[in-house]
Amino acid sequence: xxxxxxxxxxxxxxxxxxxxNYVCVSVAIVFLAVVPLFLVFVFRNDQNNIVLITGxxxxxxxxxxxxxxxxxxxxxxxxxxxxxxxxxxxxxxEEALSxxxxxxxxxxKKFELKSNKQKxxxxxxxxxxxxxxxxxxxxxxxxxxxxxVFKSNNMVSIIIWIVLMIGAVYLKYTESVNDRMVYFxxxxxxxxxxxxxxxxxxxxxxxxxxxxxxxxxxxxEKIFWKDIQSxxxxxxxxxxxxxxxxxxxxxxxxxxxxxIVNNRLNKVLDVLNENKHRxxxxxFEA
Length: 286
Prior knowledge:
Layout: H1 9-42, H2 50-85, H3 89-98, H4 106-109, H5 116-130, E1 147-150, H6 155-174, H7 179-202, E2 207-210, E3 213-216, E4 221-224, E5 228-234, E6 243-248, E7 252-256, H8 262-285
Antiparallel strand pairs: 1-2, 2-3, 3-4, 5-6, 6-7
Helix pairs in contact: 1-2, 1-3, 2-5, 6-7
């Protein structure tokens, strides 16, 4: 391996986001949504058109299989590139795994697309770099503040209910609709908006994170980095908010991150990883 190990972890992770996640998501959106809608629009007056049918099926297949193919191929290149260029390889590896840019899942690894040369480079990547004892390398991300606060934000839900209420009022004066349904929608919307606002302002913050501790819901829970053994974030589901799971030397915590959307959870993970690194540096240098 020709080594030039001067790339910071944040820049290496950004590369993974651009070359892996963004490509996969963009292709999936185009071929699973944009192209089928375009075909339906163009051939909307001829639903039995063979072009519409074959084009739609082909588009869906491409939208499913190409991102998977790209991810399996690019994740190999990404690990090899990181092995040659990233300064703090152990920290990079942990964070890239947590962000799903790479994987060590046995089933998925069987399908990785790699040449014989890449197989040898990967062996050196795991043996020569990850196989060595981890060292604390100072690699601070100055873009992340010394202390970061995450607040609950349910504005999307509030906007949806406002739109529904406006729609109900519009239908009342333009269409023949049941008044009781209109009034029910308005009252229900007002109640739910009030509830969402209550959740938003119930706590000053959901998470406060710095290099010493993680504080949850206005200090309801305060967990110090010196006690934390591991943590992970579970993404929000259809009816379930995201969670921050923390294991300490004494107990485990499952902290609900209601009001923090999945896109924002990526930022939470970045802040957690960075402050864990800052704690390790301070502890190492002490």
